[in-house]
Amino acid sequence: MTGSVCVPVLLAAWLAAAGAEGLEQAALPAEESRVQPMTASNWTLVMEGEWMLKFYAPWCPSCQQTDSEWETFAKNGETLQISVGKVDVIQEPGLSGRFFVTTLPAFFHAKDGIFRRYRGPGIYEDLQNYILEKKWQSVEPLTGWKSPASLTMSGMAGLFSISGKIWHLHNYFTVTLGIPAWCSYVFFVVATLVFGLFMGLVLVVISECFYVPLPRVSSERSEQDQRPGDVHGAEQLQDAEEEKDDSNEEENKDSLVDDEEEKEDLVDEDEVEEYEEEDNLAGIMDEERSDTNDQEVLQEGNVSQKEREPDEAPSVDTQEVVEDSLRQRKSQHANKGP
Predict the structure, then answer these.
(1) What is the per-residue pLDDT for 173?
(2) Residue numbers annotated as active site
(3) How far apart, in whole angstroms, are the C-alpha atoms of residue 46 and residue 52?
(4) How far apart are CA 215 and CA 222, in angstroms?
(5) CA angle, 57 as apex, 188 and 145 as ends, to 5°?
(6) N or C end: fewer C-beta atoms under 10 angstroms in the chain?
(7) In sequence order, what are the beta bridge partners of 55?
(8) If 0-12 CB within 10 Å is exposed, 13-18 middle and 19+ buried, where does residue 40 land?
């Protein structure tokens, strides 16, 4: 009996002790996070000192895997002399546009207002080595228009903020009020058209307010002053055209005279060539005639010698005389030639 009674007593004591421990643990406050949330109102804190920022989304699995490592890194921030922050891109779309975040999670290092993108893993050891060994010095900083503090990125932050507000408004219509999605889309299309027309009207009003029309008298005077100038310019153009026409006519005349002179020179050369050809033909005819005459004389001499002395050969002297006369005639004809 005593053994059976002791078992329920011991069980009740154990349950009482476990309940007391649970109450003590519940009574202890939860450990405060060392990661500082960054918003559009306090993001300028990263412009001073050394910071590490993490951009995340609550629905991102990769972001959730690095949460514990990021908390550990933040706890050792005092030892590393660095501040650690995080940005929820759902709640702060303007900051995601300012840093031009396109992938999640995204990490950034800031040192006295100079930002660099950290592309390593979100593990505590790698983050610690990145700070202690100053590996960030070998990373190209975001300068110029890429810097989150530049005017360009400020405009980008405004656009992202507007898109975030539109998205929240769409969720309010479709989730909270239960309006169909296509009705929400129609509402935004109509609102965009109305807003565009309103902005156009505002620009027209502004232009009308700042535009001062000229009085009619001054406009008429300006037109009258312009007319003499236009007439003078037209006269100058006419004079220039007439001068061009005169110069073209003179050039044409000169070219015609040159062509006529060239033609005359060609005609003279042709006539000279014709005269030379006629002289050559005449000389050739005279030579042929002289040759025929010489042959006739030789034949007559031979015949006369044969008749006188049929048995004797012609004398050598008569032949030489005849040949000399032929040579002289040929030389005379050659001298007459060209």
Answers:
(1) 87
(2) 60, 63
(3) 9
(4) 11
(5) 75
(6) N
(7) 87, 106
(8) middle
- At residue 106, the 3 state secondary structure works out as strand
User: Helix, strand or coil for residue 319?
Assistant: helix
Residue 330 CB contacts under 8 Å (≥ 6 apart), including other chains: 287, 290
Q: How many residues does the chain have?
A: 338
Q: Is the pLDDT of residue 14 over 60?
A: no
Q: What is the mean pLDDT of residues 131-140?
A: 93
Evaluate whether 100 touches 153 at the Cβ level (below 8 Å): yes
pLDDT at 54: 96
Element (H, E) at 232: helix 216-308
Average model confidence (pLDDT) across the chain: 76
What does the block give as tokens for 110? 């800031």
Alpha-carbon distances, residue 302 vs 180, 242, 305, 317 (angstroms): 146, 90, 5, 13
Q: What is the pLDDT of residues 258-313, one digit of tens each?
A: 777 776 666 566 666 666 666 667 667 766 676 676 666 556 655 555 555 444 44
- Beta strand segments in the chain, E: 36-37, 50-56, 83-88, 106-111, 114-118
How far is 209 from 256, CA to CA, in rounded Å?
A: 69
> How would you class 88 by CB atoms within 10 Å of its CB: exposed for 0-12, middle for 13-18, buried for 19 or more?
middle
Rounded CA Rg of the chain: 60
**Short-list 56, 53, 57, 34, CA closest to 45:** 53
Residue 205: both structure tokens together:
């009003």
